[in-house]
Amino acid sequence: MAMNNEKTRIAIFDTTLRDGEQSPGASLEPEQKIIIARQLEKLGIDVIEAGFPVSSPGEFAAVRQISRELQGVEIVGFARAVRGDIDAAVQATQDAARRRLHLFISSSDIHLNHQLRKSREQVIGIAREMVAYGKQFVDEIEFSAMDSTRSGMEFVIELVEAAIGAGATIINLPDTLGYALPEEYGELFRTVRREARGGDRVRYSAHCHNDLGMAVANSIAAIRAGATQVEVTVNGIGERAGNAALEELVMAIETRKEALRAETGIDTAEIYNSSRLVSRMMNFPVAYNKPVVGRNAFQHESGIHQDGLLKNRSTYEIMDPEAMGIPRSMIILGKHSGRHAIKHRAAAYGISLNEKQMEEVYEKFKAEADERKIVTDDQLLRMIGEAADEYEDPYTLTDVQVLSGTQRSRIASVTIRDREAGTEKMYSGMGAGPIEAVIHCVQQAIPVAAEFEDLELHSLSTGEDARGEAVVTIVHRKERYRGTAVHNDIILAAAQAYIGACNQAVRSGSIRRAESAGENAG
């Protein structure tokens, strides 16, 4: 590792498009892979493992197009230690400005005996032969001893020596089953680097799975032990419990870089955009409590936390969410929130409350929070309006009707009141699903150039009277607005949340009223 104030540059190897896509239900179309790859390049990824070229024609074509288009990043072709795999990987990446061949073979006795059915001597022979074969075509060869953390140290060293001798330039020691403890994983790297012949002239990479929740901790242990590359996925997606999460590892290094003496080339401002893109395209929701990019990661409900945070952000935050592109909707208003947080949220909308109004709002707020757990901005503003006797939403949904059927498109009609125009009009629309049909109606009533970016639906209870929460995010002029609604009817909740997001944009002044007139009634 580097000494004094010098920091080791850690290369970030992203395998979202290969290992990440192996998550159950997370497969991508070739076109989607290319869109994600472009965002990964924008994020500042050093190395992209774009797929497993031999696995299908579509996979081969996607890796080939990514190789041709993304000339500013190193592209990896993934292959088993088999000639056909190597040929496909070499062909798919031949147009890359910089490319690498990534070969793997199992090293643990469990895998050798029950999967490969090969002896250790045979595996060493295959590794030596296939690395040498690949070296004819590609200078940069990464060799992975799969399941290395459950293999005997002596055999791992012997296998690594064979790969280095045949031309491997990067040695990856993957914790394939997420089995290792950090001290064990670090010792594996230290021992191989020290004892393998030629081990001091190659680079080392860590590839950790998260079965025991230690993928990032193990990756950091590898960095401390001399690894200069870490293999990650966006949102930590991957087989079983997933891989080391890119956003967690990068922000751990960024936040503790002085202690780790390490740094990356990642543009942290693109972390949130990357997370949302992968989540949407892979239909893979991000857990509320997911570090760095989860919905609750920078939201504080406790009154003590909120009060401290509003006085000085560093009291309860070690990272700046805005530096990662995360909207600053940091404080959830819930039953533990205090007057300070309510006053601050009102001030964000240009509203000042006197003491009497504050007490009236606070009493209503506590009653609502006890019943619904959280209070949305729309609900709070409604309470403030009632206390001040002057508030009304710019747009109000007064009625929704949806006609569904198995053999037809869904048809919806909505009635929306426009406060400024003083009108109440009905709009109709169609869609493949009922929510899409309702959204098309609302877009006629509020025809702003706002992108309907995201919809989250969550069940808040069980049973026949279960209530659902809808969270809608829209984008207008590069600003995000989020509306939330809770209702027994999830279609109605989605419509209310969408209008709530639009109302926030209107109140922010970013939407000109001339754009918001409702001339297009259907």
From TrEMBL:
GO biological process: L-leucine biosynthetic process
Classification via Gene3D superfamilies: 1.10.238.260, 3.30.160.270, Aldolase class I
UniProt keyword terms in alphabetical order: Amino-acid biosynthesis, Branched-chain amino acid biosynthesis, Leucine biosynthesis, Manganese, Metal-binding, Transferase
Protein EC: 2.3.3.13
Keyword GTP-binding set for record: no
Ranges of residues in domain Pyruvate carboxyltransferase: 10-272
Pathway(s) of this molecule: Amino-acid biosynthesis; L-leucine biosynthesis; L-leucine from 3-methyl-2-oxobutanoate: step 1/4
Top-level taxon of origin: Bacteria
One Pfam family this sequence matches: HMGL-like
GO molecular function per UniProt: 2-isopropylmalate synthase activity; metal ion binding
Record has Acetylation as a keyword: no
Signal sequence bounds: none
Family: Belongs to the alpha-IPM synthase/homocitrate synthase family. LeuA type 1 subfamily.
Name of the protein: 2-isopropylmalate synthase
Organism listed in the record: Paenibacillus darwinianus
Taxonomic classification: Bacteria, Bacillati, Bacillota, Bacilli, Bacillales
